[in-house]
């Protein structure tokens, strides 16, 4: 599963407009074929005062 950066930004803007903006964005998974776009979304999410959490426990073998 890949994360569409543009659609994610649209969704965040929509949630903000509807006063339903989450406080955290969570990345992670047991297996993924493509890197998560943490770098691409980091500044954007921070501009909305959202925290970013990356759970690498499964892929790091923990």
Automatic annotation (TrEMBL):
Quote the EC number. 2.1.2.1
Q: Which residues form a coiled coil?
A: none
Q: Give the InterPro entries listed for this entry.
A: PyrdxlP-dep_Trfase, PyrdxlP-dep_Trfase_major
This protein's record includes keyword Nucleotide-binding: no
Which branch of life, at top level? Archaea
Gene Ontology biological process: methylation
UniProt keyword terms in alphabetical order: Membrane, Methyltransferase, Transferase, Transmembrane, Transmembrane helix
Entry GO MF terms:
glycine hydroxymethyltransferase activity; methyltransferase activity
Which ranges does the record mark as transmembrane? 21-38
Q: What is this protein called?
A: Serine hydroxymethyltransferase protein
């Amino acid at each position: 599963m890949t994360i569409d950066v543009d659609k994610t930004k649209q969704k965040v803007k929509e949630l903000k407009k509807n006063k339903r903006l989450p406080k955290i964005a969570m990345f992670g998974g047991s297996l993924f074929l493509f890197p998560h776009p943490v770098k691409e979304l980091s500044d954007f999410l921070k501009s909305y005062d959202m925290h970013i959490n990356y759970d690498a426990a499964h892929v790091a073998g923990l």
